[in-house]
Amino acid sequence: MKTFALSQLGQRTEAPPISWLMQLTLDHPHLISLAAGFTDTESLPFEEARELLDEILAAPRSRRIALQYGTTGGDPHLRRLTADRLWKLDSAEGAPFSARADGPTNAEGAQRSSLVAAKEDYSPDRILITNGSQQLLYLLAECLCDPGDIVLVEDPTYFVYLGIAQSRGFSCRGIRLEADGIDLSHLEHTLEGLRRSGELKRVKMLYLVSYWQNPTGITTSFVKKAAALEILRRFERASGHPIYLLEDAAYRELRFAGDDVASALAAEGAKERVIYTGTYSKPFATGARVGFGILPKALMTVVSRVKANHDFGTSSLLQQLLCRALATCRYERHLPALRRRYARKAATMTEAMREHFPAAVRWQEPGGGLYVWAKCPRPVRSGVNSRLFKRALEREVLYVPGELCYADDPARRKPNHEMRISFGNATEADIRAGIARLGRTLGELL
Amino acid sequence: MKTFALSQLGQRTEAPPISWLMQLTLDHPHLISLAAGFTDTESLPFEEARELLDEILAAPRSRRIALQYGTTGGDPHLRRLTADRLWKLDSAEGAPFSARADGPTNAEGAQRSSLVAAKEDYSPDRILITNGSQQLLYLLAECLCDPGDIVLVEDPTYFVYLGIAQSRGFSCRGIRLEADGIDLSHLEHTLEGLRRSGELKRVKMLYLVSYWQNPTGITTSFVKKAAALEILRRFERASGHPIYLLEDAAYRELRFAGDDVASALAAEGAKERVIYTGTYSKPFATGARVGFGILPKALMTVVSRVKANHDFGTSSLLQQLLCRALATCRYERHLPALRRRYARKAATMTEAMREHFPAAVRWQEPGGGLYVWAKCPRPVRSGVNSRLFKRALEREVLYVPGELCYADDPARRKPNHEMRISFGNATEADIRAGIARLGRTLGELL
Q1: For chain B, does the N or the C end have fewer beta carbons within 10 angstroms?
Q2: Residue B148 contacts A, CB cutoff 8 Å
């Protein structure tokens, strides 16, 4: 007799690396973790959340909404505020949110003038409120991908997404990254290869973490997003169905240098092909875990149905919290301080890296997000079984091995010389101490 | 070219009846809905939630937990409080929560003396905190059921569960209900039939809504739960794998008459075969949507992995709210008033039914939960296409047609003469007016 009665999904699902990394943290209480993608605890809006919840639960109307069931799609007011905010960001009315004084007068600003989207396209009807944007990534995988299907991802990509694919039995193919996003010719080449091998009908989406990407910190330019959408469209005839562009904008608001970039929603043909996921967890009350998406209408129906089976709607209390935070502008007012803080922590980290890391280790100065992506010279391995990783652990410092962020792809060997180092959750003192420890370890091995 | 690129699940998933019922409510603003399974808004713990959240966000330790990411399984303190509470209820230390003065001295009380479970069995390690208990029902379906698999359900059962089955492609078979739970001989007969047809290997669970069942209001006795578990065990040799008993205790705390019944967790052999799901949404802050489950250890691992892919953990803020509500006993103190209120609303409803319904319509006086299950004489149809339903709607009153709560089962015709009428969310005035309207409609048709 079998010990379990598991489904194929149940049998297939492997332990995610995140649980293993978390276990390491628990097993080593003195460990400095530069691995977690947690936000900066000191910058969480404790007082704002306290005031907001007090106001919500004091007012006769809002408290009745907050403590009762709602509808699957989400609170109508929050959906409207979310749609308006996205429009504002994409139409560059978002200028006041810029962390820099010089404003959006660069190339991206110029691109904006050619945006084809209109305010009506950012319709609350197309907004779905979810339990973090993670839930929406999962729902989309359920609604679009069968086992054996293919999603194109950045190479490297968000490792939890690879876990969803592993569990659900679809595969991911990596598209090479350049400084401003995916390599478009590699995207074309990959799609062409899949067309030739007869696999194009299995391709459902291109998944891009487009702002301060997890793990590399790269932001995709608007031009590239629009071009990628155009390329996907060209292959639809051969695939026999739409190929969606799934834009994961989780880190969009954690920008502390440069200007915002319009989302793919603003590009030609986006309305029927772009799925945009965002979150209020990273820029505001992380523990509230409220995310959202804007979806083509045809997908909205089916994704809502499946969400109804998951939970028939995200907590009304949390939705009211975000609703009021947005409506009273406390959300906006929280962002500048948050960005200054991450800018300082990022600078602390890269200063320490310059001081302690061997010159052969390379990285880009981050302009947003939570991560620095550091590349060792090729002979040095950084993976979970590497000497570097083990010695770093002996010295009580943890990073995310770069190899975890790469899809299994027969077309290339998995790179094993990179590290995702997070300045999000560690204190500045721990960032300095952790980087010093990691630097000593690197020094010994290089 | 196909319009969509949907997965098989995406193509298969039908609109849930709940969205259609909700749309009716929106389209008829003067409608009295006796259909919704919402809780009583006036009895929601507005002041308690306000105080609790204020305390949580004022205290340096709890606020840091509340607004940060947590772990997938849930907050350790909440898991311990939840385990302790379940043990207390099952070991009849739960006596103070009894709504009646006479205490647990009846047959159930006597049964308790023979419970085999020990406190250690109610271990926090086996507790998973979820987004309502609904999420756990979904996760279990994912981890245990492939398309074509079979879950045995009560006949009738919770209609949203049937929606999960429809979407995921597994089928449900109904087991007849008696006044104290499923008909055990029908359970045996059904399993025996499935054994003979070679389908027993597809049977993964028996799903019971064991307290004040949705929709019938029936509570399953402990003796029946233990016996059902024993029957399932006998068929495991032939099935080749475990057959789980999934006990959905969503309405357990909404008891206003009689004594609590021990859960199946307390029965012989429960530890490896019983999955218990519960919720804090119905008895306390509904809009918080915090649910929980206690699972066999082997399942805990895989279900946690899949939950990590869904959302890597339920909102920490909501978990802290429940944690503090339990730890400070505000949760317990809220229950007696809540129960008195539901008792009064149930009485208001059944008094109005006695006054306005034709004598041929039958129902049981509810002792808990949110519903009265009314049976018309057989020739009268109550379904979505019936004259009764349509005329009721013309009179601006809505109920849940009983047919929606029955699985598609080739072994019997779907009953179509019952109504689920909820006293949960409507005001007492609306309950009286709604029942009067429904009574007039019934009077015309009988």
Answers
A1: N
A2: no
